[in-house]
């Protein structure tokens, strides 16, 4: 309980520091975080201004493609500030691939931030889809529940750059004609969706961080153990893998351990064989 409380306090402190850094950046003459955002949409929902001053527009796809859902409004969203939970509670989904077009007129370094929360399914492998950026695969097999669990905020962050008429993302380059197309690609499991998204000028360090996840954050003592074990050769590597698996959010029923079955039934025929063999051997010796 104390550890969870400490993590929540750390999350609130991180939010305060982020706001202070934005204020100092603005005071120093540079653009604020909100001023660096060139496009933002609250998918499936109404317009909203978040705690950082980012203006999310009402969904422009309303009545055109896909379906809007506010099913998540009945749930509190972990890792998100109370004022901005609406960005994760509404969503737009479609039975086929769909997306948004973002006009970009200036060259430079950019960040695409996509906001998600799984508010319906209660186990992994129920909703899995991809995300493409101008045809480039930037997120593969996104399973929100497997990443963070149920009713929990999750941000997918994709840096990209536009220089000399070329789009560079994930090590790939293509011709850029002034329009960024973000597509949510239909997969084998259910329908693709998005809760909110925005595009901003800047680097990864400029993106506001979500509050820590109690089930995903590693305790400090575990991190220290991993650093020590990483220098221990093969055994250290094995221990590190097991520690990582402990920090992973588990989903679905546990699979029974096939090696934990009771093997006492295998002893019965052996005991019967001994019971028959010993008297027979005794009789043969008497003869």
Automatic annotation (TrEMBL):
It comes from the Eukaryota. The chain crosses the membrane at residues 266-285. GO terms for cellular component: endoplasmic reticulum membrane. Residues 219-234 have a biased composition (Acidic residues). Residues 235-247 have a biased composition (Basic and acidic residues). It is a single-pass type I membrane protein. Residues 209-259 are annotated as: Disordered. InterPro entries: Malectin_dom (IPR021720), MLEC (IPR039155). Keywords: Carbohydrate metabolism, Endoplasmic reticulum, Glycoprotein, Membrane, Signal, Transmembrane, Transmembrane helix. Belongs to the malectin family. This is Malectin. It comes from Nothobranchius furzeri.
């Amino acid at each position: 309980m104390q550890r969870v409380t400490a993590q929540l306090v750390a999350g609130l402190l991180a939010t305060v520091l982020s706001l202070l850094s934005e204020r100092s950046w603005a005071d120093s003459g540079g653009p604020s975080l909100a001023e660096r955002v060139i496009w933002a949409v609250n998918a499936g929902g109404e317009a909203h201004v978040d705690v950082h001053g980012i203006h999310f527009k009402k969904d422009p796809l309303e009545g055109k493609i896909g379906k809007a859902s506010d099913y998540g409004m009945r749930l509190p969203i972990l890792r998100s500030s109370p004022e901005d939970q609406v960005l994760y509670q509404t969503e737009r989904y479609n039975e086929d691939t769909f997306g948004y077009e973002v006009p970009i007129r200036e060259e430079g370094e950019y960040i695409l931030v996509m906001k998600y929360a799984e508010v319906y399914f209660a186990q992994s492998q129920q909703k899995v889809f991809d995300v493409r950026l101008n045809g480039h695969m930037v997120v593969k097999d996104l399973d929100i529940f497997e990443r963070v669990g149920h009713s929990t905020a999750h941000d997918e962050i994709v840096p990209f750059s536009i220089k000399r008429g070329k789009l560079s993302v994930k090590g790939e380059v293509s011709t850029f004609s002034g329009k960024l197309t973000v597509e949510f690609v239909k997969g084998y499991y259910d329908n693709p969706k998005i809760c909110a998204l925005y595009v901003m000028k800047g680097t990864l360090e400029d993106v506001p961080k979500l509050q820590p996840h109690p089930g995903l954050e590693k305790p400090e003592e575990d991190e220290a153990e991993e650093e020590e074990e990483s220098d221990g050769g093969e055994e250290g590597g094995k221990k590190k893998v097991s520690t990582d698996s402990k920090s992973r959010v588990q989903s679905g029923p546990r699979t029974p351990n096939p090696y934990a079955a009771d093997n006492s039934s295998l002893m019965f025929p052996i005991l019967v064989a001994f019971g028959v063999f010993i008297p027979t051997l005794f009789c043969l010796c008497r003869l």
